[in-house]
Structure formats: structure tokens, C-alpha cells
Amino acid sequence: MNTQLIITVSIVLGLLFLFFISAMVFSKTRRNLDRIIQERFNKEELIGATTRSNFFGIKSRGGAQIRGNGALVLTKDAIYSIRSFPRNEFKIPIHSIRSVSMPKAFNGKSVFVPLLCVNFDTGYGEDSIAWALKDARKWKEAIEKMTT
Fold first, then answer.
1. How far apart are CA 40 and CA 114, in angstroms?
2. Global pTM?
């Protein structure tokens, strides 16, 4: 058998294996996040929830933060962000939200699609936080309805 063919087949099989392992890890992570959402929130209080959010950080902490996949939950009282790894949670009370926007970059990071960015009052001043979401516009509209 040709050496180039062996190398090519090995690379393709290696990439397929990595893809398979990654898919399993992401699937398990989403299941864990679904379980957390079900345990912590009543269906009646949920306005929106997704286990496919990509946390872009908090403005005041600068661009050196680790982005991360996780869950985003909207209730009538707050927005909850639950990052998978490293595990971290944020809660933004609805009454503290000042504005919602959809920039294509945040803290020097971009995925070249509009992000959901929430500007809120911390009690010590204003700050903002952003996520990449599949339906960022839908989330923006839902949050704006609650804050006007």
C-alpha cells in the first residue's frame, strides 16, 4: 500500500475520531445543562432557555477572559448565565438592565455574527455582558419587552 495513502487514511480517521469525541462531550454537556435548568427553574417561570450559548465575558473584566459554552435562561425576574467549563454563573436582575444591543464583537472577540449584549447596573456603575446565540434577535426582543 502506498505510504501517502496510509498517511491520508490515518489523518482522516484521526479527524473523524476527534469529531466523534467532541460531539459526545458537547452532547453530554448540553444534557447536564438541561438537567440543571429543569432542577432550578419551574417551567412556568421560564420565558426562554438555551443550552447553546457562548459566553463572551463581562466588559469590566477585560478581553483576557475565557469564552465558554453554557446555558442562558430568561425568567420574569432575571437572566441567568451558566457557563459549563470553567463552571461559573451570573445573574442579572431584570430591573438592573439598562439596554440590550447586538454588536458583532465584544471585548475584542468576534464570531462575525451579532451577539446578545446586555448593559446593566451593578450597583457600583454600569457593566455589560455578551453571548453568541442562535436566536440573538429573539432574545433581545424578549428582554426589551420586559425592561420597557
1. 29
2. 0.79
